[in-house]
Amino acid sequence: MKKLFFLLAAVLLATAQLYSQWVQQPSPTTNGLEDVFFINSSTGFISGGSGLIMKTTNAGENWVIQPTPVTIYVNGIYFLDLNTGIAVCGNYTNNNSAILKTTNGGTNWVTKFTNTRIALRQTIQFINPNTGYTAGWSQNDSALVKTTNGGETWQRVYVSGMIGIDKINFIDENTGYMVGYGMDSKPSVAKTTNGGLNWTKIYSHSNAIMYMSMCFINLNTGWVVGINSMNRSLIQKTTNAGVNWVDQVNQHPANWELYNIAMINENTGWIIGDAGQIAKTTNGGTNWRAQVNSGYWWGIDMVSSDTGWIVGEGGVILKTVNGGGPVSVQNISTEVPSAYSLSQNYPNPFNPVTKIKFSIPSLSSPNVSIGDPVVLKVFDITGREVQTLVNERLQPGTYETTFDGSSLNSGVYFYKLSTGDFSETKKMLMIK
Questions:
Q1: How far apart are CA 343 and CA 85, in angstroms?
Q2: What is the pLDDT of residue 22?
Q3: How far apart are CA 224 and CA 213, in angstroms?
Q4: 294 has which bridge partners?
Q5: CA-CA distance, 45 to 102, in Å (whole number)?
Q6: How high is the pLDDT of residue 18?
Q7: What is the mean pLDDT of residues 394-416?
Q8: Hey, which residues does 250 pair with through a beta bridge?
Q9: What is the C-alpha separation between 297 and 315, in angstroms, rounded?
């Protein structure tokens, strides 16, 4: 009987680990966390408020705070190898900035650059062991800062037409992009084809507030994210080296400001932002599906399609070992239903994973509006939203998706399907 009990416990534990999504890790601080960078799957660093730099050598199971010579925000962190790292610091209220360097894995950090006219942002990139860039905002001209000796000394570089730079992304030693704010008061994209010696502004958005981040995965394909003119999500994609950009905003899971994006290939990536939103795409941004909706996230680093970390306000650190969990919705029938329906989840009760099936009728059916997104959300007993399972436009058919409650407590939950004039809610029970 004991063997059966332990076998069952092992199976349940393995199942919980298999379906776990973003799991909170222990954190030694409540300071806001700005950036995260892993050298490999075990060794990583996190930076944040009040001069904070933390290090782990066991994949985030423990984090050790390292002493630094600054008290302002450490907005970005980058390592060339296990020993050599660069940290950029900036105060957005008075444009006070510093650049730090370590040569012993973070045991000691030395100030290599200071400036009272720049607010350095969360962006650092080296195109070779000697040449690297960081950037930010300045009141009177662009704040691109460059090193040619591995971070020992840094010099400001003028970029025509740009007064604010939020992200730098080099594809190789010659070709790189930057996003920021142009002197024409528009979010802009600039490009270099000679290793950063010259930059040319190639695109400006006429109806947006700000670009916050960017990610290119090859010379032609890239994404920018930020804030549109209504203080809502801004997502754009290019497939022709930045010449043209296509909005993907209608495919995002909610109206929230976006702060960062991490793409690991042409199909798979994550976006993070305010209101605690983390969303994933597996089809190049055609659809973005929400994974988490609590917290406030700034930094993300994915070391593979499965393993990654996200950091944000209050010292919170999240880790995933399965790409954030099962968020896909699958069409399980080619037959077109005659009416909307929301089925009872199965199994029910469940621990900690269950499936939910629903049907979308023909667009010619009553109460069906063309173009309305299908939204399936889960709420706790108090009515607090705990997860968005589906938020996208779907063709008529019968669909199935998975709810993973491994990060939640046992109890009663409700799931609600809504689209057009239709809405239905059902109850489910999780017992751990």
A1: 53
A2: 87
A3: 6
A4: none
A5: 12
A6: 33
A7: 88
A8: none
A9: 10
- Spatial distance between the Cα atoms of 225 and 249, rounded to a whole number of angstroms: 9
Cα(227)–Cα(414) distance, integer angstroms: 32
pTM: predicted TM-score of the whole model, two decimal places: 0.75
Report the alpha-carbon distance of residue 278 to residue 404 in Å, rounded: 15
Decide if 182 contacts 163 (C-beta within 8 A).
yes
Q: What is the DSSP letter of 345?
A: P
Q: What is the pLDDT of residue 96?
A: 84
Q: Please give the sequence-ordered ranges of beta strands (E in DSSP) within 323-367, or none if there are none.
A: 329-333, 341-342, 353-360
Question: Band of the pLDDT at 118, cuts 50, 70, 90?
Answer: confident
pLDDT at 293: 60
Q: Name the nearest CA neighbour of 119 among 150, 142, 147.
A: 142
CA 353 to mean position of chain CA atoms: 24
User: Which tokens belong to 186?
Assistant: 């528009």
Predicted pLDDT of residue 140: 66
Structure tokens at 138: 């300045």
pLDDT in tens, 228-257: 877 678 899 999 999 999 988 644 445 578
Residue spans in the chain of domains classed CATH 2.130.10.10: 23-320
Count of CA atoms in the C-beta half-sphere (13 A) of 85: 30
The residues of the chain that CATH labels 2.60.40.1930 are 329-430
Distances in Å between the alpha carbon of 193 and those of 201, 234, 397?
A: 12, 26, 48
Q: Does domain 23-320 have CATH number 3.40.50.720?
A: no
Contact between 271 and 224 under an 8 Å Cβ cutoff? The reply is no
* Cis amide prior to 396 (ω within 30 degrees): no
Q: Where are the beta strands (DSSP E) in 343-421?
A: 353-360, 374-379, 385-392, 397-404, 411-419
Q: Furthest-apart CA pair in the chain: how many Å?
A: 75
Q: How far is it, in rounded angstroms, from Cα 401 to Cα 127?
A: 42
- Block residue for tokens 């060794």: 43
CATH of domain 329-430: 2.60.40.1930
Of residues 180 and 107, the one with the higher pLDDT is: 107
Highest mean pLDDT among 186-190, 274-278, 369-373: 186-190
Contacts of residue 200, defined as CB under 8 A and 6 or more positions apart, other chains included, come to 190, 191, 192
List the Cα angle 188/93/133 in 5-degree steps: 50
| Predicted local confidence at residue 3, as pLDDT | 35
For the chain, state the CA radius of gyration: 23
Of 163, 121, 157, 116, the closest CA to residue 138 belongs to 163
Sheet holding 110-115, edge to edge: 74-79, 85-91, 96-102, 110-115
